[in-house]
Structure formats: structure tokens, C-alpha cells
Amino acid sequence: MADSGFASLPPHHPQCLGCGPDNPAGLQLSVYRDGDEVFTDLAFDARHRGAPGLAHGGAISAACDDLFGFVLYVVEEIAVTRTLTVEYRAPVPLGQRHRITARLHHRDGRRLHLEAAGVGDDGVTRFTAQALFIVVDIDHFSDHGTEHDVHAMFTQHPLRTREGG
Ligand SMILES: CCCCCCCCCCCCCC(=O)SCCNC(=O)CCNC(=O)[C@H](O)C(C)(C)COP(=O)(O)OP(=O)(O)OC[C@H]1O[C@@H](n2cnc3c(N)ncnc32)[C@H](O)[C@@H]1OP(=O)(O)O
């Protein structure tokens, strides 16, 4: 959904499982910033099926994890997931739109404590999540991605300027 008035945030990279527009198997999240929070509106579909008619818990977890990766724009740090906990409070029906909102709860050194909630159009909170992200530098990605891909991931990011790239 186009939420006019909110800043649209760029995907982590075009093939990202969570937000990459060029990944047909991905969630293709569109993420917006609202003050210190980020959010996405998502209706899980047949690709994300767990039990009949319901979203798979792993798909819900992936959506939360990726959305946490957008809080990094707010925090202005590069970080990766160390722990992720999802509370599945109620089944999530396929096709029902949920707004997932994430924010920094608090920071402790390199540790970013994050929290998120997924609320349906009907006002029901069906899942919440907490994560610990650890701040890293760009070199963290260099061992596994090609130099070109790592460079491409960060050249489109506002955080690039912080790293002097
Ligand atoms: C928008 C921004 C741009 C894009 C961003 C990038 C793309 C993002 C894409 C997003 C996609 C979605 C996201 C994804 O999919 S991210 C992909 C999934 N995640 C990973 O692949 C991460 C794999 N793990 C690692 O690489 C290492 O473990 C890291 C780098 C995380 C830490 O290894 P490192 O050797 O560096 O650090 P450390 O082990 O000494 O620990 C560091 C500190 O943390 C403390 N600690 C540890 N565990 C716990 C705990 N359970 N409770 C409390 N504290 C804990 C620990 O005591 C220490 O504290 P201190 O001694 O310093 O005080």
C-alpha cells in the first residue's frame, strides 16, 4: 500500500528474501518509516502457507526479521540478527492484511534490542517479536558476498555515507 506522507525505505538489496523486488520467492516487503518506527503492510499468500488457510510460522518470522533490518535506518548502524523470538498469539489467515511495526526498544553497546508487532486490519494482534541485533561493520559481509554485491548492497543505502563509501 502506498502510504503517502511516510518515507519509503529502499530494500536491503534487490534479491533480499524479505524485501527484494527481484526475488519472486521473497516476501517483497515495502517498508516505510514513521518517526522512530518502521512498518510494512503484508498479506501472506499461498506461497507462505503453513496449515490450510494459514501463514507458515517461518514466513511470519522472516517478515519480522527483515523488518527489524529496516530499524537500522533509524538507528543508523549496520547490524545482524543474533537472536529472534516470535510469539505466535493467534493464527494468521492467508489474504488478511497485517501491519507489522518495528522499533528499537533499547541499545546496550553493540546490542540493539528490537521489538515488533503484527496487527490485522481487524485490530487483532496476532504476533509479536523481539530480536537482538549486533552491530557489525561492512567487513562482516565481505567473506561471503562478492565485492561487487557487497558494494552494491551499500551504495544504495543512506548508511553508506557513514562508512565513507
Ligand atoms: C539498513 C542498513 C544496511 C543493511 C544492513 C545489513 C543488511 C541487513 C539485512 C537484514 C536482514 C534481516 C536480518 C538478517 O537476516 S541478518 C542474517 C542472520 N544473522 C547472521 O547471519 C548473524 C550470524 N552471527 C554472527 O555473525 C555473529 O554471531 C555476530 C556478528 C552477530 C556477533 O559475533 P561477534 O563475534 O562480533 O560478537 P560476540 O559473539 O562477541 O557478541 C557481541 C556482543 O553481544 C553479546 N551477546 C551475544 N549474544 C547475546 C545474547 N543472546 N544475549 C545478550 N547478549 C548477547 C555478547 O556478549 C557481546 O557483548 P559485548 O561483550 O560486546 O558486551
TrEMBL record:
Its EC number is 3.1.2.2. GO terms for molecular function: hydrolase activity. Pfam families: 4HBT. It catalyses: decanoyl-CoA + H2O = decanoate + CoA + H(+); dodecanoyl-CoA + H2O = dodecanoate + CoA + H(+); hexadecanoyl-CoA + H2O = hexadecanoate + CoA + H(+); (5Z,8Z,11Z,14Z)-eicosatetraenoyl-CoA + H2O = (5Z,8Z,11Z,14Z)-eicosatetraenoate + CoA + H(+). Keywords: Apoptosis, Cell membrane, Cell projection, Cytoplasm, Fatty acid metabolism, Hydrolase, Lipid metabolism, Membrane, Transit peptide. GO terms for biological process: fatty acid metabolic process. Gene3D superfamilies: Hotdog Thioesterase. It is a peripheral membrane protein. It is found in: Cell projection, Ruffle membrane; Cytoplasm; Membrane. It comes from the Bacteria. Belongs to the THEM4/THEM5 thioesterase family. This is Acyl-coenzyme A thioesterase THEM4.
